[in-house]
Amino acid sequence: MHVVPRLAKLPSTRDSMIIRAAFLKSFDIALQPANLLDRFHRAGALVTWWEEQSDEFKTIAARGFDELVDGWIDTIRDIIEDAESKKEDRDAIREHKLVRRLLPEYLREVQAAADAVTAIEEEKAAFERGPDDGGADESSADEGDGEAEARNYAKELKDELKELNNSIAGQLDRIKTLKGGRKEKESIIAAEVSGKDAAALRAELASPPTRHGSWCWISPAKPSCAC
């Protein structure tokens, strides 16, 4: 019994159950020489496969091969274009027989991109754990459940930057004042226009800022800072 020609004629004959019987017989004949399974297990394996594919055979019998392929395409497109589709559904689509048959290069590109994302996520996680501090943070573990809170080194750096910015905010405002125009009463230009000695203001502007929240003034006579 030739199964393939009968399958090709299925849209006109609509004898899916006869094809099922033909598959059972042909598979049994093909697998019997391997002597790996008895005939009951061979039949059971094919029946399981048939049940998984039965809807597709019914579609072919009722509407033809074109309708089956169109249904595959619609299913694939719906999942890909749906922004709310689940990850497992998207992963399953990549394993679809039509995608694997027609888009092998695309699947390799997708896998390469997924591998790259995994590598980046691992690098991100390693960065967020921060440099190895010799286990100094182990004492910060919650003794109640025995688990330490996951460290986020990036957040620590962000918080430190915020603290630094806040600590020199007043100094930056002072610099802006010193560099202001004539209308800024405490600016260097305003002092010079009014005939005042602006040397102290210039020295103040030249002194480096500190992170202590107060302006560090270094006089020419004592070029040092205890900040």
Distance between the termini: 96 Å
Quaternary structure classification: single chain
Number of strands: 0
- The percent of residues in helical segments reads 55-70%
Q: In total, how many domains does the architecture comprise? A: 3
Give the strand content: under 5%
The biggest sheet amounts to: none
Radius of gyration: 38 Å
Which residue ranges are poorly predicted, with pLDDT under 50 across at least 5 consecutive positions?
A: 136-144, 212-227
Characterization of this structure:
The protein has three domains: 1-63, no CATH class; 66-129, no CATH class; 163-206, no CATH class. Helix content is 65%, strand content 0%. By secondary structure, the chain is mainly α. α3 runs antiparallel to α4 (39-63). It has helices spanning 3-8, 10-13, 16-31, 39-63, 65-81, 87-94, 97-102, 104-129, 153-167, 169-178, 188-193, 199-206.
Output the keywords.
227 residues; mainly alpha; 12 helices; disordered C terminus
Question: Brief overview, please?
Answer:
This protein is an all-alpha fold. It is 65% helix and 0% strand.
